Amino acid sequence: MIQRDASTISLWQGNIDPFQPTLMADHTATYDVIIVGGGITGLTTALLLQEAGKRCLLLEANNIGFGTTGGTTAHLNTILDTTYEQIEKNFSKEDAGLVRESVGAAIGLIQQNIERFSIDCGFDYTDAYLFAQDDQQTEALEAIAKSARAEGINITLQDKIPVPFHFTKAYKFTEQARFNPLAYIYGLARAFEKAGGVIVQDCRVIDIHNTKHIKVDTTTGEFTGMNIVYATHIPPGINLVHLRCIPYRSYALAVRLADNAYPAELIYDMHEPYHYFRTQEVNGKKYLIAGGEDHQTGHHENTEQCFRNLEAFVREHFNVKSVDYKWSSQFYESADGLPYIGNMPGQPDNVYVATGFGGNGMVYSGVAAMVIRNIIVGKHRATEKLFDPNRIKPVAGFTNFVTHNADVVKLFFGKLFPAHKLTALAEMAPGEAQVVNYEGNRIALYKDEEGVLHAVNPVCTHMKCEVGWNSAEHSWDCPCHGARYDADGRVLNTPADRNLEHLDISHDTTKVEAHEHI
Ligand code: FES
Q: What is the Cβ-side half-sphere exposure of residue 122, based on CA atoms within 13 angstroms?
């Protein structure tokens, strides 16, 4: 098993051994490209650039697959969360076509990599079903189908669906796909190393200095590069993209069925948030993967309830023998519905970012890798402009932008100072957490199952919002831009790049001492 940015264990994570890099990094070399982040985006980008003749170094703060790649449900779709109709409205008909072409090419890239490098990751092209259950959903579904058909996606109306749900209308979309994401990126990592690329795990980037070359300070020493790519899901530090992306959590189960009625296809309902189902065989066992219950990170009081809701929903429709895995993971929605891929806003031209993939991270990772590879090797394509993180789109996304930032302000000035009783220190049961007022300070407390208190300063080290407890993942989550920390304040997710201030509590619980730790 490998580690992930969560305390729950995903189906993928629980069925793979840690990756062991085989090549040593050279601290005296100047790499052409330093890629930060060992998920699917970082590894795909690194491989494409290494194969394009660039000398690449990939730095991962934990282990490869630690972030959302280890927690995704790994659907590969050309039907996207942002519909083609929305893309046409927010951008143009030509741009919708370009997106359709790009995501198709990304699935093709995955298939080619699997064939070229003989990666055993359960990849299959399969059909997807999208079904509506009332008049309003039917209307929305018809609009999705119409705009997707206009982009050349093969869609047919269905009078049956492969899952036991009532429906008013359903469409089948061909040429969608699925795979095991960790098995896939392990294959990419081996191919990258074989091509001469270097992977360093347990290497957190602390700072970069961009002069003639980029000097990258890390927990394992300094590295030098000509270009740097942030493939960390959302970049660290403070940047415009943080104000243009909204973090969400999504919940997933991998269950075994008593009646073997595993659907061969990808299935989606039209709820808000929607549920999704698919089957994957891992290590010789079939699992039904079900997902949903999405909510904005840090905006849900009881995250364990999300698992309970999802399990009840799955049990209502399937004959569940056992729930073998439950996990949650994070994704970022962009303000205008398309990802931000390219030069990082406010940074020199040799600093790149890929973020805001929404619920389509698996396909957009491939799009990001191709766009960034093309920019770095000097092949300029129309996608460079379309996905440019510096684009300004005061369209539907603008509403999101304003709403989101109003929320940030509310959290700063409202949630930082609510009244809590000091007695909460003593009243917490094992497994509970709270942010309490203590001698004029706010303290985030977690009492572990052994009754030991863990205390941290709840002020997020990114832009100073107050974190809240995620009971499902035993983490402190920031509601503003999605930084997450473990119970002792260690960073799990960017954009934070510094841990929460750790507080030592004396035995009589009347004294609290603060410690800085990185
Ligand atoms: Fe930005 Fe916490 S993630 S303030």
A: 21
Q: Which residues contact 259 (CB under 8 A, 6 or more apart)?
A: 319
Q: Which residues pair with 438 in a beta bridge?
A: 441
Residue 152 falls in which region: left (phi positive, over 0), alpha (psi -120 to 50) or beta? left
Strand 124-132 and strand 169-178: the pairing is antiparallel
Interhelix angle for 40-51 vs 181-194, to 10°? 30
Pocket test for ligand 1, best of 481, 492, 497, 499 (most atoms within 8 A of CB): 481
CA atoms lying within 13 Å on the CB side of residue 347: 25
Note the pLDDT tens digit of each residue in 365-407. 999 999 999 999 999 899 999 999 999 655 444 443 444 444 5
Q: Which of 44, 38, 82 is nearest to 336 (CA)?
A: 82
Give the residue, out of 470, 478, 492, 497, with the most ligand 1 atoms within 8 A of its beta carbon, to mutate for a pocket test: 478
CB of 113 within 8 A of CB of 191?
Answer: yes
Distance CA 244, CA 250 (A): 19
CA-to-CA distance for 298 and 290, rounded, in angstroms?
Answer: 22
Beta-ladder partners of 215? 209, 224
Question: What distance in Å separates the CA atoms of residue 495 and residue 483, rounded to the nearest whole number?
Answer: 5
**Cβ(130) to ligand 1 under 6 A?**
no
* Residue 217 binned pLDDT confidence (cut-offs 50, 70, 90): very high
203 by Cβ neighbours in 10 Å (0-12 / 13-18 / 19+) ranks as buried
Q: How far is the CA of 305 from the centre of ligand 1 (A)?
A: 24
Distance 516 CA to ligand 1 centre (A): 18
Ligand 1 touching residue 495 (CB < 6 A) = yes
Question: How many angstroms is it from 467 CA to the middle of ligand 1?
Answer: 8
Test site for ligand 1: of 234, 463, 498, most ligand atoms within 8 A of the Cβ: 463
Report field, pTM of the whole predicted structure over 0.85 = yes
Of the candidates 208, 211, 207, 190, the residue with the CA atom closest to the CA atom of residue 199: 190
Q: How far is the CA of 442 from the centre of ligand 1 (A)?
A: 17
Number of separate helices (H) and strands (E) present in the chain: 11, 26
